[in-house]
Amino acid sequence: MAPVVQALALGPMANFVYLVSCPVTRQCVVVDPAWDARAIEAAAAAADLSIVGLVCTHGHFDHINAVDDLLARHDLPVHLMAEEAERVELRNENLVRHRGGDRLRLGSGELELLHTPGHTPGSLTVRLPEAIVTGDTLFVGGCGRCDLVGGDPVVMFDTLQRLCRGLPPETRVFPGHDYGSTPSSRLRDELRSNPYLQHGTLAQFVAHRMAPRKPAS
Fold first, then answer.
1. pTM score, whole prediction
2. Strand pairing report for 50-55 and 78-81
3. Class of the domain covering 4-209
4. What are the boundaries of each domain within the chain?
5. Which segments of 56-213 are extended strands (E)?
């Protein structure tokens, strides 16, 4: 049976934290554990899930700031890309460093960890049989910033091209933030309407992605 995805909207930055679980064994991993460890634990308990690991799509504080709190009460592996491990201040003994394409066993199934840099050098996307959890790589109607430390719009363009070419159009997209018109989307809909996926050339994408940000009104 395919893993089940449960989204938790937590924190002041419209973050999504995800419980990805095996419906057979009731084991789950927490993707991007942030803001409220107690709420994450409560959601897992309410769904009769046992947390067996944490997965960090990247190391920005708004995606990992509940890790230490969870580790204080649970001895859990923290899965992330090797390129990102050097950029985070987390308990080293819990870190499991991965390369793109590694597979993570979850109960009776497994998850694939895709290396999707651009927002950060070690950004990852979690691939399930019919869905992806994208962190700050791909949003509903957008994509992650490339003007922060470690960001690279050239790399992001290549990542998005590869991601979109390599996945079925029916793939469900679960983003790291609730920034779009819907909490999640289908890849086919993003290919049709996401402005960052409409650029046919690298130059067009870079110009759009790196245009000066408008101040909040």
1. 0.95
2. parallel
3. alpha beta
4. 4-209
5. 78-81, 95-98, 102-106, 109-115, 124-127, 131-135, 138-139, 142-143, 172-175, 185-186
